[in-house]
Amino acid sequence: MSVFRTAGGDAIDRSRTISFSFDGTRIEGHPGDTIASALLANGVHLMGRSFKYHRPRGVLGAGTEEPNALVGVTRGPGRFEPNQRATLVPITDGMVVESQNRSPSLARDIGAVNDLLSAFIPAGFYYKTFMWPRSFWAKVYEPVIRRAAGLGRPPEVTDPDRYAQRWAHCETLVVGAGPAGLAAALAAADAGGRVILCDEGETIGGRLRDMPRATIDGLTAGKWIVQARTRLENAGVRLLTRTTAYHYGIGNLVTLAQRCTDAGGARTRERQWMVRAGRVIIAIGSIERPIVFPNNDRPGVMLASAAAGFLHRYGVLVGRHIVIATQHDSAYRTAIDLAGAGAAVTLVDRRARPAADLGEACSAAGVTVITGHIPIDTRGRLRVSKVAIAPAPDAAHRWLPCDALLMAGGWTPSVHLHSQSGGKVAWDAQSAAFLPGTTLAAQVSAGTCRGRVTLADCLADGWTAGGGNGASAPAADDRTDTGMSPAEPDAHPEGARRKAFVDFQNDVTAKDIRLAVREGFRSVEHLKRYTTNGMATDQGRTSNINALAIAAQAMGQTIPGTGLTTFRAPYSPTTFGTMTGFTRGRLFDPVRTTPMHARAVAAGAVFEDVGQWKRARFFPRPGEDMHAATARECISVREAVGLFDASTLGKIEVVGPDAAAFLDLLYAGRLSTLAVGRCRYALMLREDGFIADDGVIARLATDRFHVTTTSGGAASVLNVMEDFRQTEWPDLRVWLTSTTEQWAVAGVTGPRARNVLAALVEGVDLSSDAFPHMAVRQGRIAGVPVRIFRVSFTGETGYEINVPARHALPVWDAVAAAVAAAGGGLYGTEAAHVLRAEKGYIIVGQETDGTATPDDVGLGKMVAATKPDFVGKRSLMRAAMRDPDRKQLVALLTADRSLLDEGTQVVDPASPRQSLGHVSSTYPSVTLGRPFALAMVHGGRSLLGTKLAVATAAGPVAVDVVDPVLYDPSGARLDV
Amino acid sequence: MSDLILTLGDTSASRAPDEAQLLLHGHPRDRAALSALAGFDLSDTMLASTAGSGWHALHLSPDEWLLVGPNGGRGDMAARFAEAPIVLSLVDISDRSVGIDLTGPLADDLLAGGCPLDLATLSPGGCTRTLFGKVTVLLWRRDDGWRMSHARSYDAYVVDLLCAVAEDLASP
Amino acid sequence: MLLIECPHCGPRAEIEFRYSGEAHMVRPAAAAACDDATWAAYLYLRDNVRGEHAERWRHTHGCGQFFNVVRDTLTDRVVTTYPAGHARSAAGGEI
Question: Is A263 found in the same domain as A120?
Fold first, then answer.
């Protein structure tokens, strides 16, 4: 079919042909093809436009290193992904691929004018321009920059696919299934223990797949890979292909992104593995470098390793007339392979005298070899058409026609994961590369990523790293050298106007780097950020070392003396879907519901989030808004009886002979004097003296207390209590048990509350003499044993019925029926807030903000100052804590009867720019017949009876400062 | 509420039966006396459980054992500790949590979707608190699989997450 | 993510724990009687160690116990862990 397809290719299924569209053109390929290989098979090299200059670009690489061929891929509604590397995305039938960063089309892109204007947009362009006139920024510069910035276009609808995550544990994790990784995994499997082997490729084998003529243990490379897979599977090794180790974290937690399917739908699209490994063997290979010379970026100019990959994996010839520019040996193998597949190949070697046997092998294969030459320029608008070669940049040149130019500038070992693990890298002069140095993590690198060069060395290195005995390592008979050699950036003469690209994705040229050095940037980290070299999505895989070499040369330094930038996760672009995993929608954060939740739903409740809890805020009847419903619920409580789900209150059972002594230390009040069967309101302070939490504490027995906390404070109060119990007073004989979820709580409050309970409760004398306010009794309702606390958060007579959660519904239903029969009904948190505020009861976190003392909120009498010690006591003794000008709790009544906003500032009308405090709570009140507010005001209690103002958007509103207890100040209604 | 939450081939998740749970705290040095009160030996190995007369005791913290037994025996067991000669705390938490039994070949994988723990470190009878997603759970390896229990307000989340993990495991 | 050896439960993922600040802060014995400077130091003054730092963690989603960790703030490596109430040795470990 396709003109550039050969007979080879281990990745594709030739028996089937599928098609996709690329910028509207139908392209055919085989299952197993990537977008790039399918396009190249059809002779299409132009795949994108560069970011800054909009220059036409084709693929540079064949895998994860690809900087140029970024495309948008659509696989159906909601399945659009921008910035996909065409070299990685397998084609699927009917998928739609669009090129990026061009308008209107790849071949005719108006942005290409930037290329002509490039003299005016050098490195640091953004920092140097757009600075004046100042008024141009918002209206002109920013909108223009925003339009030009960014890669691709973002998806616009919710991703319909499923993502997953899984924890895994193993003794050995091997990253990379090339020759070294396979050998390591085989050895580790022999040694026993759990082994996981992952590789980002579609299948295992890595670079070995591009070495079909190599033999290992008497088998061809392809057969050996198959045999290795079988051995690993039989040994129970977990083999994860299409899986990239993208983050190497502390504690040997390596995070893998597995691309389960490209189709989505019912299958998991991507899965994140969080692998905790005893040791990690990093065998992630190395990446070839381009050669830096003018116009080295035209479509058809690519890495020699990429051409080898396309040939051996996909059966695709990248051209028919191929020139290879090299400065080391590994390109010779590629040249011979390409010639063998039918291409006319000319190999241009920088070296004057390469090894003789290489030349002979080339001659035998029909490859023309020109030594002592380098490429110095290219031509061809949308595809390279010829390359100029010369003995030196300024020497006489000649043109070689070609339709593909391959660059073999040396190999860069991938030290990314080693670096992420906290390891240092060290320059190795012999291989002219940074290699893994010391590390504190339990990991080791193996193979070409630590500078091993021959296949035999890589196999042996992996085998040894995996724990194998060196003598029994897989033996390769191919001694082919990968020929690592230093980058030679001086091919680009300084001062030339033509661009020699270093970072293809961010369009950074050799000239940009030299300019930055001239402008005084010396640190590699600064150079990187100023030029943006290595900051694109490929993270400088192909550019970092060349850029470093150019900078070092410009500064007259060595490469190791110049330094290397830090490698950070992710190793490879990773989708938000992978990182999110299950954590979306209902699983984003737990939603906690009480045992009576279904009843609130049935009653039409509108819920509010209180931490993770769903709490019923109000129960609207037809036509009611929140204010109307809340007013009705308040009237019901004040005049009849209301029922409230208080189950979310935190509860802690404190048990032991020293329980009372412990609570005396933890709370500001004195609990040791509390009689059995009685309750007391108590404040918990922090050591700095400010209110941390509050609640009612009931004494069930001499050595047993039932402590309640705020709904939001349940976990933190228990944490603080455990902290002091375990570490400060470990000798106290007391234990804590969270009972928050043991008990469901039905709050019954109002003048008819006692009547309601009288009809329900067995075994409790409800008379005020026998069961007074602030007492606790145990009885039965509907046959269920309950704890009843006579407490009030509304100012009315109230009971909180604690029911074992399993039996909550029958008790709740019985109580609800009795409440309804008494003319009452359900009320929600909104009414509860209004009712408590009318009584001046604080809510911790509403009136208090972490800087309020008990006295500030009018609860100074809750502090048993004569106790020798309690948490917060010493801080309360500071003079500043008793300053009469501290913010104090008051109520505010607006003269115009308007409703204030929470958080607004209280001011003196005479000096309205000086804040005296703030409004902490504000509600309309049907009981009071007017809105009211609670506020924290400096010296507030001394200002009772005076007039202040509250600053609003419409201007100051006059307010009367009054006592915070606006309803039933005598407390008579607590005992009705 | 159906007892069966999900099935995945031979693997299933189902509601654990209602059982009594009494949380016992006492000083580790009093373990012998505590064992005498319980009527069977309480483990002195952390994260291990022991059993006797229909009850299990899960040693979850240096001074903490969770007693799990038949609902009907709750009062009797509690009474044994009521007038103890040693210092201890016994609190009935039978209603605090709900349990899910996971059995079958993929039970470990179901947990691995949300649990950071190396499950291989727990042998049968082993028990620990850990996380499942964002929720604290108690894991207890039993002869036929796992019992996972969690505070009841989190039940919808835990079940949703289990089902999401199961869907992933079912994905080819 | 750290792997922290809980003295009671063994090695666990960091997400099971909650950090609780610098270890070995001694609450003044007679808190009510100590001077302001002593109390302020207890409340607010903490070392900002470059290197091995003794700190408190709680195995919140596990045994619930507070314990001490020596962690190298340069490498984020856990050097050793030991129960609350135990002294830190010169080498950073438990005595």
Answer: no
Which residues contact residue A246 at a Cβ distance below 8 angstroms, ignoring those fewer than 6 apart? A255, A256, A257, A569, A570, A571, A572, A574
Mutate to test the interface with A, among B21, B95, B110, B117 (most CBs of A within 10 A): B95
- What CATH number is attached to the domain comprising B117? 3.30.1360.120
Average pLDDT value for chain A: 92
A589-630 pLDDT per residue, tens: 999 999 999 999 999 999 999 999 999 999 999 999 999 999
Nearest C-alpha of chain B: how many angstroms from A325? 45
Specify the DSSP element, H or E, that contains A831: helix A829-838
Q: β-strand B20-26 against B49-52: which pairing, if any?
A: unpaired
Contact (CB<8Å) C63/B60: yes
Residue B87 and residue B100 in one domain: no
Contacts of C23 in chain A (CB under 8 A): none
Show Cβ contacts of residue A711 under 8 Å, excluding neighbours closer than 6 positions. Answer: A610, A611, A613, A615, A648, A649, A650
Q: Which two tokens stand for residue A382?
A: 């949308």
d(CA A153, CA A135): 29
Distance CA A443, CA A174 (A): 10
- 3 state DSSP class of A433: strand
Task: List chain B residues with CB under 8 Å of C10.
Answer: 47, 121
Answer yes or no: do C76 and A422 touch at CB < 8 A. Answer: yes
Residue B107 DSSP code: H
Q: Is B15 on the interface with A (CB under 8 A)?
A: no
> CA A707, A713, A715, A716 torsion: positive or negative?
negative
Mark yes or no for CB contact A276/C13 under 8 Å. yes
> Given A422, A727, A868, which is nearest C32 (Cβ)?
A868
Is the CB of residue A23 less than 8 Å from the CB of residue A98?
yes
* ipTM value for the complex: 0.97
Question: pLDDT-derived band of residue A128, with 50, 70 and 90 as boundaries?
Answer: low
Comparing alpha-carbon positions, the chain A residue that sits nearest to C78 is A251
- Residue A327: pLDDT band by 50, 70, 90 thresholds? confident
Query: Which residue in chain B has the smallest CA separation from C17?
Result: B130
| Domain count of the fold of chain A | 7
User: Is pLDDT of A488 > 70?
Assistant: no
Please give the residue range of the domain that contains residue A606: 587-618
B92, B125, B149: which is the final residue of a domain?
B92
Where residue A329 falls among pLDDT bands split at 50, 70, 90? confident
Instruction: Summarize pLDDT for A183-217 with one digit per residue, the tens.
Output: 999 999 999 999 999 999 999 999 999 988 889 99
Asked whether the beta carbons of residue C12 and residue B130 sit closer than 8 angstroms, the reply is yes
| Residue corresponding to tokens 């690592």 | A484
Domain finish residue from B92, B117, B142? B92
CATH number of the structural domain spanning residue A725: 3.30.70.1400
A398 lies in a domain? yes
Could you tell me if A86 and A38 lie in one domain? yes
Specify the CATH architecture of the domain C3-83. 2-Layer Sandwich (3.30)
Which residue type is seen at A4?
F
Range of the structural domain that residue B34 is part of: 20-92
Do B163 and B128 fall into the same domain? Answer: yes
Contact partners of C by the rule of 3+ C-beta pairs under 8 A? A, B
Between chain B and chain C, the number of residue pairs with CB atoms below 8 A apart is 39
Q: CA-CA distances (angstroms) from residue A394 to A491, A496, A852, B47?
A: 9, 11, 78, 76
Distance from CA of A106 to the nearest CA of B (A): 38
Q: Which of A164, A276, A741 sits opposite B151 (nearest CB)?
A: A741
Are both A152 and A62 inside the same structural domain? Answer: yes
